[in-house]
Design a protein that fits this description.
This protein has about 300 residues and is of the alpha/beta class. The chain has a single domain, classed as Carbon-nitrogen hydrolase (Nitrilase/N-carbamoyl-D-aminoacid amidohydrolase). About 25% of the residues lie in helices and about 30% in strands. The strands form 3 sheets. The chain has a 6-stranded mixed beta sheet. Helix 1 runs parallel beside helix 2 and helix 3 runs parallel beside helix 4. The longest helix has 22 residues. The termini are far apart.
């Protein structure tokens, strides 16, 4: 088995306004730094073009959405071509009048856009009113083929679901990617904040272990006040990380810094780990039919 490595990176960014041009410029600056350091594949965080508008239900926020193709895809396709990298981005997609998605888009060097994934699991919690804005995805759990490998791209709330990671792995994903926007309610205690972060990182490391795949997670950072009077706003907890196929942390960012991470991933190690821990061989697929039910009554 010949060794093959891939330099994978991510950008952790704080967003302070809805000025897309400025936010794209800041993202591009970090992506260029990673490319200059030899990074071949870079991921940006969830909804990196604007503030996290889902803290409220406001129909005016639909003006932030844009079509595919559109200004964002044109901008990041040019960036990927300029730097000769694979680039995973995120945007608020206007698919049609009254029809919107939370969509990740992948660009491959000179080829332009090579695939997209529409977020499948849509949360609806205080401060995270995403069901108001996003229609659940309809593209399935299908990896995106690129020149550097098959990418299992999922988005934020998808990261809590082992089924999503498993289906991407079963379809041949080489790496799992999670662009993310998650943070704390400012009224949470320090103990609750630590429990939430630990759960978030643990379950994604579990996806790496259960599927013998590296996992790359780009989360936003910084405080974004709520537009609703009296609401506490969200402190996005950053701490983006990259884990190996046994869940080992290869790199992790701080909570409050705008930064980048880059890791050289041994792409042949996945096969080696799967030979030692053959979970896919031993799965009892003949007895898993109840997983397609909502609940076992």
């Amino acid at each position: 088995m010949s060794n093959r490595t891939l330099n994978v990176g991510l950008v952790q960014q704080a967003i302070t306004s809805n000025d897309k041009d400025e936010n794209w410029r800041q993202s591009a600056e970090k992506v260029r730094q990673l490319a200059a350091d030899g990074c071949q594949l870079v991921m940006l965080q969830e909804l990196h073009s604007t503030l996290y508008f889902c803290q409220e239900e406001n129909t005016d926020n639909f003006d932030l959405a844009e079509p595919i193709p559109g200004p964002a895809t044109e901008y990041f396709a040019k960036l990927a071509a300029e730097l000769d990298i694979v680039l995973v981005t995120s945007l608020f997609e206007k698919r049609g009048s009254g029809l919107y998605h939370n969509t990740a888009v992948v660009f491959d060097k000179q080829q332009g856009m090579v695939g997209k994934y529409r977020k499948m699991h849509i949360p609806d919690d205080p401060g995270f009113y995403e069901k108001f804005y996003f229609t659940p995805g309809d593209l399935g759990f299908t990896p995106i083929d690129t020149s550097v490998g098959r990418l299992g791209v999922l988005v934020c709330w998808d990261q809590w679901y082992p089924e999503a990671a498993r289906l991407m792995a079963m379809a041949g994903a080489d790496i799992l990617f999670y662009p993310t926007a998650i943070g704390w309610d400012m009224t949470d205690t320090e103990q609750e904040r630590q429990r939430q972060f630990n759960a978030w990182q643990t379950i994604q490391r579990g996806h790496a272990v259960a599927n013998s795949l590296p996992v790359v997670v780009a989360n936003r950072t910084g405080f974004e006040p709520s537009p609703i009077e009296g609401d506490p706003g969200i402190q996005f907890w950053g701490q983006s990380f990259i884990a190996g196929p046994q869940g080992e942390i290869l790199a992790q960012a701080g909570a409050d810094e705008q930064t980048t991470l880059m890791v050289e991933i041994d792409m042949t190690r996945t096969e080696q780990v799967k030979r030692i821990w053959p979970y896919f061989r031993d799965r009892r697929i003949d007895d898993y039919h109840d997983l397609t039910r909502r609940w076992r009554d």
